[in-house]
Amino acid sequence: MPLRARHISFSRRSFDSFLQANYIISAFLGFIFLDFIISRDDAVYDELKKPEAEKVALPLDEDLPGMGQYYCLHCDRYFANITVRDDHFKTKKHKKRLKIMAGPAPHTQLDADLAAGMGMPDNGPKLMSM
User: Fold this and answer.
1) Which of 9, 20, 37, 44 has the smallest count of CB within 10 Å of its CB?
2) Burial tier of 33 (Cβ tally within 10 Å: 0-12, 13-18, 19+)
3) Is 118's pLDDT higher than 70?
4) What region holds the C2H2-type domain (predicted)?
């Protein structure tokens, strides 16, 4: 008698719930990664590279904590008062963010296009003009 592979059947409902759970987990982890590492890095990096003379004072905003006056540029967060902000400066999250911002500039779309071979073409020097 020949051996046959057993057919394992899954109900459609359990498979859909499995896919949904995996999507939720990956979306959550992706959100954490994007929120901490990638999001707003280019804007923050540009703001950090500005000279002191070009930086403007923060306007008063009633909707933000601390009227928008206690701000961490590296983490892009507002704080209720100066002591909370100073405590934030001592945290591991802030120090990690400082290390990231001190490194090279974040990648741009032009960098990605050039790496993929879709950027500006380099046809070399013109050999003959006609």
Assistant:
1) 9
2) exposed
3) yes
4) 72-94
Question: Residue 73: how many CA atoms within 13 Å on its side-chain side?
Answer: 15
CA 102 to chain centre: 15
Answer yes or no: are the C-beta atoms of 39 and 31 closer than 8 Å. Answer: no
Tell me, what's the pLDDT at 99?
Answer: 87
DSSP, collapsed to helix, strand or coil, labels residue 12 as helix
Measured between alpha carbons, how far is 130 from 123 in angstroms, rounded to an integer?
17
Residue-level pLDDT at 53: 55
CB-side exposure of 27: number of CA atoms within 13 Å?
A: 6
Q: Which two tokens stand for residue 21?
A: 């759970």
Domain 39-50+58-105 belongs to what topology?
Double Stranded RNA Binding Domain (3.30.160)
State CA 9 to chain mean position distance. 41
